[in-house]
């Protein structure tokens, strides 16, 4: 099939190129825009308690998950706020309300907004119902500008904080980081490809291909999201770009390395391209299939951000795989050997290369290579046993900003949880309503829970806010610690819920909501998804490998190698960030990121190497010689692809943002392990040790002629196929 495809795309190249350009133009003209949301609660099913609590509060009090900012006011000398100071803060709230600032719905303060020690007073500013509105960052700047004249010469100072303010303060840092990472990525890809091929055309080819594929796949993804009403996380665009550059560069390298190999063997340009598509097409299709299976396994997730990410990335990989075996050879056929210009290295086979020496050593000492490579991965994997998960997203942001200082100042007078109160919602089962006299007892039991700092009084000074029909009561709890911390999540999702449920008066039900509760449910969903997705994806990838290799043995140790690669990557990250950098834990989203980029994309390298091992065996080589030749011939493409992809992620270390640095380090190390330890050494050495049994029960290593072999040396090929 791939031989016929190769002949078509090489000899009918203009039809192929025009078809791709037409598809890109249609995507730009007709596809809808891709809508995203960063509200993590939107990705949780309504069955989770935090979501149920939010829905009840919205129905009873007309509240939504609106955006707010908090103005923290304190004396410049650190003293207590006087009555005159509190009057000034009230005027500040009025000034912000009447300043005509876009998106500001009002600013309020109250006596209960003054801390018990009178060191801090809070002003809450409403910013509308859409926390994802990108114009809110401008509102934060206007709020600060409007506040300054009121506080001038009063001895008071203000600090605007909250989630929106933190985003506004760090927007420049993230924008600068993305510019740095994007520029470094493009420069690195071009530079490494220039070093590998010594050709400017070969260096920019991946950029052209990925650009076209990005336009087509983004249009298809946006259409899918529009038709099925799916929400998408804002990170999908960044992840999509990295995935396409990753797999796209890999597949183009696989094809160009084989094309150069066929030219060196004496093939003419077009037959060499046809043979390259024939030989590498099955590898690319299988590799893309494995990645698509891994991504589609995310459909099993209950967390919507993962579930929407899976099919989107699967579409992108399918489009990229199709482009690799159609658009790439079509474009290369236009230039022929000029694709390597001005280098002449494609004309001669290098002698005594590093990969030849590594191949010979692997073939001669497979047990030593397997022991060293496998032992290194096991040693690194041990670090994963000490992994801790961190859900504190604010800790991942740069410090020294006004919002960060405001959050610290707030804690001088209020519990840290004041920035995001945890809500306990009581709902009456029937029409009788809630007895106001029972609320004090519930409040006492909630206040006694370790980790609860205080309970904010209601408008009339009561311990809770009661709805107009008395069917719902809301307790606003301020946790003693950060609402994003692991301790807060464990409290909101554990003991606090238990106590709230038990304290609910007869005829009522209790639900715990608020940010800490939402993240507690996200943690639960995340843990569940990882337990389900990983085994299912591993099984399905094993099926892909079994179909490709017609074997049951080889897929087993390939999957074991991939799993070991995942845990060794995780372990290395734990050692560096939790050990050396003394971080409290790794970001909760890191395991799924490693799954996407290390497990899924790293499988490409295994497939390329095992396919080359089978190819060398089919040419009549014994298992150790096959390992020798596979490392010599497939090693350069695996190494180049791994180095480029790892370098792409390593550029994130320049970002200066903790999460991006953590992601960049872990994925780059994982890709290096997958390419240079697992695929290049562990897989060929284990295959050499197992021998022909690796292909059981099929006969994948049986010597057989290929079209290229028959064209090149028919007599030798036929003799090689005889028993």
Provide the descriptors you would attach to this structure in a database record.
723 residues, alpha+beta, Multidrug efflux transporter AcrB transmembrane fold, Alpha-Beta Plaits, 4 domains, five-stranded antiparallel β-sheet, four-stranded antiparallel β-sheet, 24 helices, 63% helix, disordered C terminus
Describe what this molecule looks like in 3D.
This protein is an alpha+beta fold and 723 residues long. The chain is 63% helix and 8% strand. It is built from 24 helices and eleven strands. The strands form three sheets. Strands 6, 7, 8, 9 and 10 form a five-stranded antiparallel sheet that branches. Strands 2-3-1-4 form a four-stranded antiparallel sheet. Strands 5-11 form a two-stranded parallel sheet. The longest helix is centred in the first third of the chain and has 35 residues. It is elongated and about 90 Å long. Its main location: membrane. One of its GO terms (cellular component) is plasma membrane. This is Putative drug exporter of the RND superfamily.
Tell me the total number of β-strands: 11
CATH class designation of the largest domain: Mainly Alpha
Which range best describes the helical content: under 10%, 10-25%, 25-40%, 40-55%, 55-70% or over 70%?
55-70%
For the record, the count of structural domains works out to 4
Residue-averaged pLDDT: 83
Structural class by SSE content: alpha+beta
Compute the separation of the termini in Å. Answer: 27 Å
How would the global form be characterised? elongated
CATH topology description of the largest domain: Multidrug efflux transporter AcrB transmembrane fold
CA gyration radius, whole angstroms: 30 Å
Q: Give the low-pLDDT segments.
A: 37-41, 706-723
Tally of DSSP helical segments: 24
CATH architecture assignment of the largest domain: Up-down Bundle
